[in-house]
UniProtKB/TrEMBL annotation:
It comes from Mycobacterium parascrofulaceum ATCC BAA-614. Pfam families: HTH_20 (PF12840). InterPro entries: WH-like_DNA-bd_sf (IPR036388), WH_DNA-bd_sf (IPR036390). It comes from the Bacteria. Gene3D superfamilies: Winged helix-like DNA-binding domain superfamily/Winged helix DNA-binding domain. This is Transcriptional regulator.
Amino acid sequence: MKLPPTSIGESASRRREVLRVLRMSPDPMSIAAIADVLGVHPNTVRFHLDSLVGDGQVEHVELDRKGPGRPPLMFRAVRQMDRGGTRHYRLLAEVLATAFAAEPDAGAKAVAAGRAWGQKLDSSLEAVPAGTTSAEEAIDHLVNMLDELGFAPERRTADGEQQVGLRHCPFLELAENRTAVVCPVHLGLMQGAMDAWGAPVSVDRLDAFVEPDLCVAHLASQPAAT
């Protein structure tokens, strides 16, 4: 069924009105009842209900009715937050970064938070058996992990030192304004992952924006466990 020509904004607004009516009703409602409340044609309501049902925001209700005749289709709002609504994760990140920045020893706390994050990444990314990884394998795993996270990493060597260059930052705008918080989180992330893998190499430091399109992670051998 096609809705009569209208703008996308008007259609979205009408859909929200249909959902609002159902949310305010203590009982399931028929198409005719919704149309009566909104003062629109039942076909308009039916069109928007199809979309709302498809999005999981509204559900059909089976009436326990006996007797002749086909009972009308009844609908009710699914009682949950709107999962199709707007997200503002960048705003949340800015709030958290601002709070971190105001803390004493903000850099150290940011590294610790990153370490905790890195140690848990095995559950969502490719797992590496702890204690069975050589230095070369660990660096390869680190590069692969950073690539999956969107850092566009590249292996580098300078003055005999192994490095990982980062050509992209998934939190670029935030990192530019909150370098002292965001970059230590990234350092801790890499250190935590290496710790979780039991790698004989770790990330000694992270130099942010050494070039306009480059951050550099410096790698160092870990002392052997005694």
